[in-house]
Structure formats: C-alpha cells, structure tokens
Amino acid sequence: YYFFVSKSCAADFNSNATAALANSTAESKQPKTTEMEYLKTLIEQKKDLRVILVVDSKDNYLLDDFHFETAMRLLPLHTQSKILGKRPEIRKVSLCNQLLQLFGCAFLTGKRPSEIEFVVGAHGKPRIKDGSVAYSMSNSDGITVMYLKRSEPTTSVGVDLATTKDCEQWETDYLHMFKDIFSAQEYLYLQDLPCGPIRDSTF
C-alpha cells in the first residue's frame, strides 16, 4: 500500500489530474522527487497498485472564495450544483471528495478527467463504468480518504473513516460492539487501556 496525505486536493492543477497532493508521504525510502512524480512512477511500474489518498478539507486554501470557485469549476455543472445544495459547513468536504474521486481515478487509469465515465453501482455508490479501477471513499471530521486499486470489473473494495468524536456518543464500555472487527490480540490490548481519550484515540 502507498499512503499519500494532502492538506488540500485543490492546491494545484494540471491537464492530467484535477488536483495535486501538496504534502504527501509514502514509503520511508521514497526517492527525492516531487510527490506527483513519485506517484506517476508507481502507477507506471506497478500493475497491481493499491493506493490510499487522504485529503484534509479544513486547509485554509479553500477558505478563500476565489480558490473555492476555481476548484469548483474543475467539476461538471451538475456536480457543482449538488455541492452548493449541501449545508455550508460540509461544502468543502463535498468538494474535496469529488475532486479526489476524479483525481484518483484519472491518475490510476491514465485518462483525462473528462474521459472518465461514472455509473451508480448496485448499492448506490459510484464506480468507473469500465471497471478498470475499484475504489471506495469515506468522509469524517473534515477528512476525505480514497482507497484505489487496479481491478477486474467484478472487484470491490472498501474503506471507512472514524473519529474519536464518535466515541463520545457511545456508552463507556463500547468495545464489545466492535469485538468482531479486531483480532483477539488487538481486542485484549484495547481492553487493557483506560477508558477515555487514550483508548478512544487508539481505537
């Protein structure tokens, strides 16, 4: 897996992608190239590439109305309309989600964003029509994440984000609700931690 993190997916733009990853990290032995160049190299060299892209929509870049409008214009009009129809406090998250979706799919397929055709799958989630890339997206607390891999048309993948703020809404001993998703070792480790912020952040 290759893990890239960006403060704002709207921080840069070129003809082959809708956004650039501004401050990214990958393997500890990453070559001294720009993040975009490194990602391009990975895509060219690895057939079974799996990538996780993470964007923080709370970056100050999108607080500027001009930057927000410029980023919006990278998307089709019907998508812009959907974003503007959302509550003001989640519009930046929605914008980053849509830009990251286009960026990730365009980069992994080598196509221009305008050449990618999305359809709605059986469970109501968007997917690339030709099935050449499987992906999943999730939002939580201003963060958007995208997991992608080259795939056969029938392949499906999944990713989900959570925040420690969720833990505040649950009962104190909430671990039992999630026992099935942890290994025995992980579950015992979490059980041994004191209730509160330490357990919540580790969880």
Highlighted features:
about 30% helix; 6 strands; four-stranded mixed beta sheet; globular; about 200 residues; two-stranded antiparallel ribbon; alpha+beta
Descriptive notes:
The protein is α+β, with helices and mostly antiparallel strands. It is built from 7 helices and 6 strands, in the order βαβαααββββααα. A 4-stranded mixed beta sheet has the order 1-2-6-5, with helices on one face. A hairpin with a 5-residue loop joins strand 3 (118-120) and strand 4 (126-128). Helix 3 runs antiparallel to helix 4. It is globular, with a radius of gyration of 18 Å. The two termini are 21 Å apart.
Write a brief caption for the model:
With 203 residues, the chain is α+β, with helices and mostly antiparallel strands.
Describe the protein's topology.
Blueprint: E1 2-6, H1 35-45, E2 50-56, H2 65-72, H3 77-84, H4 91-109, E3 118-120, E4 126-128, E5 133-140, E6 143-150, H5 164-167, H6 184-192, H7 197-202
Parallel strand pairs: 1-2
Antiparallel strand pairs: 2-6, 3-4, 5-6
Helix pairs in contact: 3-4
Structural class given helices, strands, pairing? Answer: alpha+beta
Number of strands: 6
Portion of residues in helices?
Answer: 25-40%
Would you tell me the overall average pLDDT? 77
Name the shape in a single word.
Answer: globular
Gyration radius over CA: 18 Å
The strand line-up of the biggest sheet is 1-2-6-5
Low-pLDDT ranges: 7-32
Order of helices and strands: EHEHHHEEEEHHH
- Distance between the first and last residues' Cα: 21 Å
> How is the biggest beta sheet arranged?
4 strands, mixed
Strand content: 15-25%
SS field, number of helical segments: 7
